[in-house]
Amino acid sequence: MTSLVDRLVRSGYVTREPHPTDRRALILRPTPGSDQEVRSTLGDMHARMMEAAETLSSEDSAVVVDFLRRMRKAIDGIATS
């Protein structure tokens, strides 16, 4: 997560600000004007992702969902160990 935020800050999309009451936390704020560019990029990406998902058959979709559920269970098991 830190790497992602670092990249967003370096690219000028967000700024980090100290949290007013929690010294451990930061507030991420979009930079002026960056929100429209981000929305456009994410909108385009979302459309491409939906196009890819819509090509799956019902059987393929069931395999993907099963896989993702098993991965979530595996990761949840790490967090509780």
From TrEMBL:
<feature type="domain" description="HTH marR-type">
    <location>
        <begin position="1"/>
        <end position="73"/>
    </location>
</feature>
<dbReference type="InterPro" id="IPR000835">
    <property type="entry name" value="HTH_MarR-typ"/>
</dbReference>
<dbReference type="GO" id="GO:0003677">
    <property type="term" value="F:DNA binding"/>
</dbReference>
<dbReference type="Pfam" id="PF01047">
    <property type="entry name" value="MarR"/>
</dbReference>
<keyword id="KW-0238">DNA-binding</keyword>
<dbReference type="InterPro" id="IPR036390">
    <property type="entry name" value="WH_DNA-bd_sf"/>
</dbReference>
<protein>
    <submittedName>
        <fullName>DNA-binding MarR family transcriptional regulator</fullName>
    </submittedName>
</protein>
<dbReference type="InterPro" id="IPR036388">
    <property type="entry name" value="WH-like_DNA-bd_sf"/>
</dbReference>
